[in-house]
Amino acid sequence: FRISPEGSRVALARINDAEGVDLWVLEAARGVSNRLTSNPGFSQLPVWSPDGRRIVFSYGHGSPANLYLREASGAGTQQQLTEGRKMRIALDWSRDGRFILYFDLAEETWQDLWVLPMTPEGKPAGDPKPYLRTRFAEVLGRFEPRTPPRWVAYQSNESGRDEVYVQSFPEPRGARRISTAGGQYPQWNANGRELFYVSPDNKLMAVSLRVQADSVEPSPPHELFSLPSQPWSLLQNPYDAAPDGQRFLVQGPDEQSWPPLTVIVNWPALLKKGPATQ
Predict the structure, then answer these.
(1) How many other CB atoms are found less than 10 A from the CB of residue 148?
(2) How far apart are the C-alpha atoms of 204 and 226, rounded to whole Å?
């Protein structure tokens, strides 16, 4: 799921009757959902355009996922933005509308971050270009909310475990580590002066940032609150921050995925009986 730029809608993925996944747009105040896609296969991981008019998402059916674009109103048809034989997942759309950041799966470099240039009208403005492509896994990138973006926050395992980093944009000139004891799922506060992430023990953490033209100075991380403990996928954020930076939408536990509990009453009496005999 992803909250819209103005904070009144939520784009989310739901399993459909055919055991695929489709996208819906939820009007938060009314609690009304409108279906955005009706595709066979998997339409998921939506990202809003900065003006809230469009949604880029990942779609695959019998083939690796690529990036597609759809009007958030549901008007028209979906437009394919990328074409390839490896999985591509949309991650963020810069606030000036000029770049889509996405995840690319490659054989040689494993997991990389790429950028697709865009026009103000929401059309590709050129070929995709690699942004971070190393022998480590770079995933879950997010643009700094200022315009033009000068920094990207992302997750990497270059230290031997997942940590959150900030790197310059459009050209990477050296990463600054933000998390101190492991971190995943980074996300900027809309004011650009704070970064959120999830700690290894499922705490939502916050780091204040002093952002300058050529440097980022982080404060020590502090805990905001605990998140529900559950298995999350690598590319599925367990939370999203509202534009005001004061509210969060959190992925709760799926009640259907948990096994039922059996309650045994008067169990001391059962112990006194000893083991059953046949």
Answers:
(1) 13
(2) 6
